[in-house]
Design goal:
There is one protein chain. The chain is built from 7 helices and 6 strands; from the N terminus they run βαββαββααβααα. About 45% of the residues lie in helices and about 20% in strands. The strands form 2 sheets. Strands 2-3-1-4 form a 4-stranded antiparallel sheet. α5 runs antiparallel to α6. β2 and β3 form a beta hairpin. About 5% of the residues have low confidence.
Length: about 200
């Protein structure tokens, strides 16, 4: 259902358009596209989003005016919560784990060049190490670490690197909040052990 009809009242002259998606779930009710859900989200400030259901979860695709991506995402999360439907934002739909092919696609370079960066054959060296699947032959890298390296070495615009950090930080916080809600005792035990 498309809710992109009404202009936000709080938009200002230095705002730019930011596109992103939020994955959302209803806590105590089935995720169904009803007029009630659509109207509540629209009135809460999600009038710049397209709402659908993907794999049993609400999927809101935003095209939001804001001074920064951080402002856009945080205001969208606040609007979802304001709707009063018992909705929990699971994450910004942006994967932080990437393959060399995905890194190449994101920066519009060849996979061979990315491999050369990783091995130190080209570039300044010290490419970030992979973060998981180290022994499985298909390791994955954290995009926020890779984008930081790319920005540091003038291979990516600083804004793109910052946006990767913002999305990773928001998703880490959301995941932590979900863990605390689902099993507060376990989270407390682990937090106490790791301090």
């Amino acid at each position: 259902m498309n809710m992109k009809n009404k202009n936000h009242e709080n938009r200002n002259d230095c705002a730019r358009e930011h596109e992103f998606a939020l994955i959302v779930s209803r806590q105590d009710a089935p995720n169904e596209l009803t007029e009630e859900v659509e109207a509540a989200l629209f009135e809460a400030g999600c009038d710049d989003a397209t709402l659908s259901i993907q794999r049993g979860l609400f999927y809101l695709e935003f095209s939001r005016q804001a001074p920064s991506l951080q402002d856009a995402i945080l205001s969208a999360i606040a609007a979802v919560r304001k709707a009063g439907l018992g909705l929990m934002v699971w994450r910004v739909d942006e994967c932080d784990l990437v393959t060399p092919s995905e890194i190449a696609r994101r920066i519009d370079r060849s996979r061979q060049l990315i491999h050369q960066y990783m091995t130190g054959q080209r570039g300044p060296g010290k490419f970030p190490p992979p973060v998981c699947h180290l022994t499985e032959g298909s390791p994955l890298w954290a995009w926020c670490a890779v984008s930081h390296w790319l920005v540091t070495n003038d291979l990516l615009r600083p804004e793109e690197g910052w946006n990767a950090q913002v999305v990773a930080a928001i998703n880490n916080w959301l995941e932590s909040a979900i863990q605390k809600a689902q099993n507060p005792k376990l989270v407390k035990e682990i937090a106490g052990s790791l301090r």
